[in-house]
Amino acid sequence: MIKFMVAALWISIATTGAMLYSFQSAQQPEGAAEAEPTAFHGLDYVQTGIISVPVFDHGRVYGYFLARLVFTAEGKRLATLKLPAEALLADQVYTHLYANPEIDFTKRDDLDINAFRESIRAGVNERLGEPLIHEVLVEQIDFLPKDEAGSSKAQPAAAVN
User: Where are the domains of the chain?
Assistant: First the structure.
């Protein structure tokens, strides 16, 4: 009978010790860095409204550059911003287009989509002083000449693959 009780006590202690060890080893150490966010975990996709930038030619409006963008960023960091990230992105689109007057919107081949996206991402991150925006995706880019502004005949400025 005593052997039976000692064996039961031994099994209980061994089981409890194994459970405590497994719970402690499963927890992440306090000093370990968090995993890098990926497209499937840790990033929020935020869609902007239509960003409309007037294009000037010799002091008059020639047409409107229209863009709808999607950007990826960490949701926790977006929530801490005082200024909405969409406003920063829209301002960066204006800055890029007015800083590059050589872009001819009547020619679809002039707009380098990859350079445009990278310029927007890098500009916002530089302004914030931290890598907040991970990627900028183009949902829609159009150029609307001034004479067609009242109709719905927007012409795509570049083909998005």
Answer: 44-156
Q: What is the mean pLDDT of residues 110-133?
A: 89
Report d(CA 21, CA 23) in Å as an integer.
6
Cα 103 to Cα 99: distance, rounded to the nearest angstrom: 10
Q: Residue 134 and residue 37: Cα distance in Å, rounded?
A: 9
Q: Where are the beta strands (DSSP E) in the chain?
A: 44-47, 51-57, 60-73, 133-145, 155-156
CATH 3.30.479 describes domain 44-156: yes
C-alpha dist (Å) from residue 1 to 10, 106, 137? 14, 95, 73
Global confidence as pTM:
0.64
Return the exposure string of 140-149: e unless at least 16 CB atoms fall within 10 Å of the residue's CB, then b. Answer: ebbbbbeeee
* Per-residue pLDDT, 161: 44
